Amino acid sequence: MINPKVTVNKSVEASQPVFDSHFANVCGKYGPVNIVNLLSTKSSEIELTRRYRALFQGSKLKNDLEMTEFDFHKETSQDGFAAASRIQPKINTFLMESGYFAYDVRDDKLMSEQNGVFRVNCLDCLDRTNLIQQLISNLVFKLFLIDFKLLDKNMLRKYEIDMSLDMNSNASASKSGSRSNRDQSDENCFAKHNNIWADNGDMISQIYTGTNALKSSFTRKGKMSLAGALSDATKSVSRMYINNFMDKGKQSNIDRLLGKLADQTPVGIVDPQREFIKSKLSEFKSEYVTSGNVNILIGTYNCNNIKSSNIDLKPWLFPIGDKFKPDMVVLGLQEVIELSAGSILNADYSKMKLWENLVANCLKQFDDYVMLRTEQMSSLMVVYFVKKELAEKVKQVEGSSKKTGFGGITGNKGAVAIRFEYGSTSFAFVNSHLAAGQQQVYERCIDYENIYDNIKFSRGRTLAMHDKIFWLGDLNFRINLPNESVRRVLQNNPSVDDLQKLLQYDQLTEQVVVKKSIFKGFYEPTIKFPPTYKYNVGTDLYDTSEKARIPAWCDRILYKGEDVRPLSYSDAKLRYSDHKPVYAAYRVKVEFVDQEQRQKIIDQFKKSSPGAASNDTSLLDFDDSSSKKTDVPVTKPTPPAIPPKRNAVEPVVSTPHKPVPPPLPVARKSTNKSTLPPGFNVGMTLVPKNASNSSNSVNTSSVSSESEQSNVSSKKLGSWEALSPK
After folding, report:
1. Residues 117 and 34 sit within 8 Å (Cβ to Cβ)
2. Is the peptide bond before 534 cis (omega within 30 degrees of 0)?
3. Which of 90, 32, 60, 111 is nearest to 650 (CA)?
4. CA distances from residue 27 to 16, 56, 553 in whole angstroms, order as listed
5. Spatial CA neighbour of 448 closest among 400, 410, 399, 414
């Protein structure tokens, strides 16, 4: 698709703090900001436009922010790029109030100050953005020349008329050989100004797309000729080819050189100073690292194309009510759309919104949660919520996916994944739907390997690079027993011992424990609930249809990583699908890094590290600022960093005596934001008691509160143990 539809995977509530933080930083540096949004109102970009507007309207910085919406494509569709000048009336007031910075270096005198900036964006911030930025810069340049009487309004008007004539009568002017009364364009200051902006756009575009900017012909000459239009068409085709055929190969070559491919060992760069400091950071880790605990609820549900929006999810998300309110909730859904050929090829992504609302409405009945990420691929979906007061601790949230259906062509089978960092601890969650069928064990193992090896995030991150990994979904592993034998065990409220006997024939247990072929290093809490597949919809009866499928534990949740304590693992009695949903509650240890204290340790040991006495710079330095060279002092006066506010424009006047420069204004105080999160003291409401000696086995029989030290009676939830050979 040339213009794919933009989807927003984060809620307004979760995005608002990031939006405010970004613009607080920009306003703190530059003063008031006019947000110029050039996004289209067409379906491909309208969702992003709406979200941008909602964040602006909900911002706490409205006194310092303005938003100018200008649909660039719509405004220029009829009259060409020259119609972009229609934005001037929308921004003129802000432009005049902001002014510009002017300093007389000859007389060492401040003439005027700029008090505000424009922040211009489109979708990729390339072609449209550069053209509008050039237009704004041109307006300010003209204002400067007129204010300082370097160009009178009559000359400016004449220049604009000449430009208009050139645009409308270029052909006739070329035939007659007539020339403008002004200097040739390459000698004109405005033409040179335009060339600077056109070169800027070309260079940025080359870095990002491999071609020059699409609208550089207009930016450079003030008009779009036939040659310019043909050039833009050529660039568009080149971009599409580069994006689809060259970028992946280029990245693959870079990864190969760095040893980042799956069958390679990463290339190491030997740097004695860096290695020395790393060893010291490890030695003094306790001085800058603190730890805490976070409660996580993970759920998986094959929802069999549920269409109703009137569903009560409380038995699944809050099985013991408000006695356990998790800090984070991650849910994996399978078959959110019908698994037909038409549905798979034309996936209905409106179902993502349906489930987002269902989960959000359930969570808000117990606490204030915000959605940080959803990821959907065809019939698979993963959604991630966190308590609002903890959202600031979550960074670098990403999503990824891998298709395995029909040899990796379709998304009816495969996986969607999300990753994030909570404090300095990295998490990855994989929601998968593996190959179906009683005998397709090998195919399921191949699906697992493909997903584990091919789920990739930015900066070359793989699943194996994360501290904690949780794998959930409809794994489709069955029971290797006749149907009658399985149903006989399940027909009269089977005991835990009965279920354990059945689990000896569970295909996943066999692959993990006996053959050790998949899920190496993963653990699963002890299963004490009946098979979750296959039921008659709306009942608790196993499949009575003609096929009468063998009951099985298809829906599973496994984990990998240290300091992960299972608290509960069970099914939920929802009857909307032919599967029962499964949930698992965990208490996970997380770490937080005090970056300021860490930097002090780095600076302390830099002085005594190898090579510190020489002038050589470390290859991989911890602080880029340390590698900056010291410039030789110059005699030219340096303009003030933050000049006083602009009151009036003063003309440049030569004076026999050098005036005293104006006093520098008081520097803005930067907010000292500590990167160390506040004391993390999560009160556990569901605490395992009477734990066995096994490190992978926890037995909880009651619920207690650490804050009040009072016992709360609760139904026995059972014990958990890791999948390990007996």
Report:
1. yes
2. yes
3. 111
4. 16, 14, 55
5. 414
- Helical H segments across 396-527, by residue range: 441-454, 483-490, 496-503, 507-509
Nearest to 125, CA basis, from 36, 199, 54: 36
Is residue 375 a contact partner of residue 400, using CB atoms and an 8 Å limit?
yes
Q: What gap in Å lies between CA 555 and CA 473, rounded to an integer? A: 6
Q: DSSP letter for 558, please.
A: E
pLDDT tens digits for 638-684?
Answer: 444 444 444 444 444 444 444 455 554 444 444 444 443 444 344 43
d(CA 105, CA 370): 53
Q: Which of 496, 492, 563 is nearest to 523 (CA)?
A: 563
Q: Spell out the domains of the chain, with CATH numbers in brackets.
A: 1-123+634-676 (no CATH), 275-280+293-592 (3.60.10.10), 595-626 (no CATH)
> What's the chain's Rg over C-alpha atoms?
32
Q: What share of the chain is helix, strand, coil (3-state, %, to 5)?
A: 35, 20, 40
Q: Residues 64, 32: contact at Cβ < 8 Å?
A: yes
Write out the DSSP string of 665-685.
PPPPPPP---SSPPP--PPPS
At 113-155, the pLDDT tens digits run 999 999 999 987 777 888 899 899 989 988 888 888 887 666 6
Q: Which ranges constitute the DSSP H helices of 294-439?
A: 314-317, 341-345, 350-363
Task: Region of 304 please: left (phi>0), alpha (psi -120 to 50) or beta.
Answer: left
